[in-house]
Amino acid sequence: MRLVCVNGLRFRHLRLAFLAIFAVFLLWKWDKGSLYSPGILRPEPLVLNRNTSMEEDPPIIDPLVQSVTEVGKEGISAPPPLTIVHNSEDVADNAGTAPPQKKECDYRNGEWVSDNHRPLYSGPRCKRWLSESWNCRLTQRTDFAYEKFRWQPEGCDMPAFQAAQFLTRMQDKTIAYVGDSLGRQMFQSMMCMLAASGKHDSDVEDVGSKYGMAQTHRAKRPTRSVGSAYRFRSTNTTVLYYWSSTLCDLEPLRRSNPAAGYAMHLDRPPSFLKKNLHRLHVLVLNTGHHWNRGKLKANKWEMYASGAPNNNREIASMWKAKNFTIHGVIKWLDAQLPRYPHLKVFYRSLSPRHFFNGEWNTGGTCNNKDPLTKGNRVFQNHSEDADSEGAAKGTRIKLLDITALSRLRDEGHISKYSIRATPGVQDCLHWCLPGVPDTWNEILAAQL
Questions:
Q1: Lowest-confidence range among 177-181, 211-215, 306-310?
Q2: 141: buried, middle or exposed (CB in 10 Å: 19+, 13-18, 0-12)?
Q3: Position 440 confidence tier, pLDDT thresholds 50, 70, 90
Q4: Stretch 243-269: mean pLDDT, rounded?
Q5: Where does the sequence pass through the membrane (predicted)?
Q6: Order of strands, edge to edge, in the sheet holding 344-348?
Q7: Which residues, including other chains, have CB under 8 Å from residue 347's CB and lie 6 or more apart?
Q8: What is the mean pLDDT of the chain?
Q9: Which pLDDT does position 304 carry in this prediction?
Q10: 337 pLDDT tier (thresholds 50, 70, 90)
């Protein structure tokens, strides 16, 4: 009986010893990683809540603005997928690599916010550079609430514009605006932002003759001339504007008689760019509203392609001819950039019109004086100016996308207050200055 007990005890000891040895073996194998099974230990994928509640935008009736809000809600409801790191050892091994680059700010998304520090300059103190009809403080307009807003981008801050700092950054550089009258508004806005404080007024000299843009004695302000150029002596910074409403090269049909009309070469960039591109450091282009039959007829422009009157039906319509020209100019500039690495080119998207109940010559109005009645926010992943966005895509030319954010500012137009406006005709295309075009320049400055 004693022998049985002893044997049983020994057997229990042996079994415990065997279990201990087996446990040590398992721990050793685990440490070696041979028991790791990605299919078993990989974490479950995260499930994103696509019904995150957001504050609803105010009701929108105007179809011009409705698309901004609808696209915004779609963008909010479908956030990008998260990235899951499955192997912590890889992260530790790559500790010495550079951190991921900060995502570039998407200035087209954000909101208009009230700012009592606005406007950035005084219209009456900017008479030297600002056209009378756009200087709304000199008109009979009495409401100026439109001056008190700034653009706040989504998820990033836009640095406050400071004239002295900007001129220092642009030392020995030339900034050129080439486009239509809305490009001229942007140019005049920049001149006022830089010089209207009075600190730099005496520092500015007219250098238009160096670019073939000498003013006539009768032209008091840069309103109808082919262009203007001014240099800030202290920093040798030049800001210029060249009028090219369609970004086409214009050539007299008969050199002896320019009044006979002009060939509008759809496949040629403006000759001004060919002659002066090497002198520029920042170039801002725009076109759009001159592409209509009325303008072509009034200016006696005839569309040409390959050096002859255009007979290509593919680009016979106005919008196709416009897109053909925009794509051509951007493609040409993109090909030039390797030769001029100092040059940064921006294509500014279309500035929206706000004619209601008719066109400019059929009783169209923009009488609203209350800011942001259609909402104050833009959130979308594409431009409202799809043609311009498509032309710039895949090139080194940046799209200065101002269409959607400007769409919300219908109260900021000249309206019926233009000094030279014809009775019964309102200007719902151009903007009061100071005003919305100042924001376009702030976004431009932030991207430089």
A1: 211-215
A2: middle
A3: very high
A4: 94
A5: 12-30
A6: 204-206, 227-232, 237-243, 174-179, 282-285, 344-348, 398-400
A7: 284, 285, 286, 326, 330, 388, 391, 392, 397, 398, 399, 400
A8: 81
A9: 97
A10: very high
Distance, C-alpha 188 to centroid of its chain: 18
SS3 sequence, 119-188? Answer: CCCCCHHHCCCCCHHHEHHHCCCCCCHHHCEEEEECCCCCCCCCHHHHHHHCCCCEEEEEECHHHHHHHH
Whole-model pTM: value is 0.76
Q: Tokens in use for 346?
A: 């921006």
Instruction: Give the pair of three-digit tokens for residue 350.
Output: 């279309």
Whole-angstrom distance, CA of residue 374 vs CA of residue 235: 42
The single-letter code of the amino acid at 289 is H
Chain-centroid distance of CA 38 in Å reads 46
Give the CA count within 13 Å in the CB-facing half-sphere of 400.
Answer: 27
Report the distance separating Cα 210 and Cα 82, nearest Å. Answer: 55
In the structure, how many helices (H) and strands (E) does the chain have? Answer: 12, 16
Cα angle 193, 271, 277 (rounded to 5 degrees) comes to: 55
